[in-house]
């Protein structure tokens, strides 16, 4: 297995160096790896901290100064990376590096491994956030007709071959909503998906960039666009079939 870990950052100077070190310790022996840190030009010196702490070629700092945002940073990291398997995770220690070996083990069998807060054994230290995310995931399951418990995880592993089947332009924009689009299109491609339980820890240092109500409205608009777009494609397909 050749592994690429994508770490999108903005103002994570206090967390990023300890996180990269923890990840290196958890990568199982025999796996070649690269860690791609994609920074949206953080004013706190996040990328400078990475460059100062790591000189080895396996840690790749990527600076983005235009068209910034979480989903586009993840896309940039994916396009910069070369591994046969890709892991994406947050950089504030809410996603535990300790879970990496299990995720990689499952990734040898499944196309996508989702770190889920809502399957048995999962959870989250921030209880109000946990309850709000649970409620929104119920809505996503109804709207997208999926059995995936955590469509907003953002902590996942995916095979490069499965990634290459996905429409990047239709997925990688916005914030965390990119992930339910990724899963939606992956399921349409019949990718094999498994959820593994994860418990989100509290952020170690710094402040969260998430604002609940802003995300609620932006995610809901994104969900509506996805469903309407899917409906139009479905109607167009039937129209063609009717004429044949």
Describe this structure as you would to a colleague:
This protein has one domain: Spore Coat Polysaccharide Biosynthesis Protein SpsA, Chain A (Alpha-Beta Complex). 44% of the residues lie in helices and 18% in strands. It is built from 9 helices and 9 strands. The chain has helices at residues 16-26, 46-53, 70-80, 100-107, 127-144, 160-163, 168-171, 178-188, 212-243, and strands spanning 2-9, 32-39, 59-63, 85-88, 112-116, 123-124, 156-159, 193-197, 199-200. The strands form 2 sheets. It has a 7-stranded mixed β-sheet with strand order 3-2-1-4-7-5-8, with helices on both faces. Strands 6-9 form a two-stranded parallel ribbon. The N and C termini lie far apart (46 Å). The model is unreliable at 231-244 (pLDDT under 50).
Reconstruct the topology from this structure.
Elements: E1 2-9, H1 16-26, E2 32-39, H2 46-53, E3 59-63, H3 70-80, E4 85-88, H4 100-107, E5 112-116, E6 123-124, H5 127-144, E7 156-159, H6 160-163, H7 168-171, H8 178-188, E8 193-197, E9 199-200, H9 212-243
Parallel strand pairs: 1-2, 1-4, 2-3, 5-8, 6-9
Antiparallel strand pairs: 4-7, 5-7
